[in-house]
Amino acid sequence: MKLFFITSNPGKVREAAKFFEPLKIEVIQLKREYPEIQADSLEEVVKFGIEWLKKEIDSPFFIEDSGLFIESLNGFPGVYSSYVYKTIGLDGILKLMEGIEDRKAYFKSVIGYYDGDVHIFSGVTWGRIANEKRGEGGFGYDPIFIPEGSEKTFAEMTTEEKNSLSHRGKALKAFFDWLKENI
Ligand SMILES: O=c1[nH]c(=O)c2ncn([C@@H]3O[C@H](COP(=O)(O)OP(=O)(O)OP(=O)(O)O)[C@@H](O)[C@H]3O)c2[nH]1
Ligand SMILES: [Mg+2]
User: What ipTM describes this predicted complex?
Assistant: First the structure.
């Protein structure tokens, strides 16, 4: 089976491909721009994206929207994670967190699959914001996020290790469990 993943982010594709590889599902990246609305939730962003894309794409496809929610910053950058990453970046986040003791944060991933109907799957991983950047792997905020129960940042893990703990790994698992029952 082949799954089309509409995203501009090669890191997301790498993680999805690694997840589906042993399950004999091939992930094919399609780069199509779609509007990411300023909504309160990742679910709304995904649903709007699907409504926009479904007119353009003939076969079933999925998209994913994710974000980092920092508790002491009232959930910032959240749905704006992509914009904040491109503007103030990791150093900006570390600066905002200077002197803040409560470093709790979670990552959330929402996958939307369209096969004529819209199916939504999500995953959440709690952890904390590191005091400094560590690791070369992963992408995005990975060098500053330490998942609960680990001492390593996501960027210090292999793709398999990150998938076994991450928000995206959990959302992909929920997606796969649904596919098993419905395909
Ligand atoms: O450390 C991280 N570990 C992750 O596992 C992760 N997943 C997402 N992000 C970051 O959060 C924003 C999401 O925005 P996003 O969902 O719109 O993605 P994107 O714009 O990169 O790609 P896409 O929208 O074309 O799929 C982007 O800045 C990503 O870098 C992550 N950071
Ligand atoms: Mg995006």
Answer: 0.97
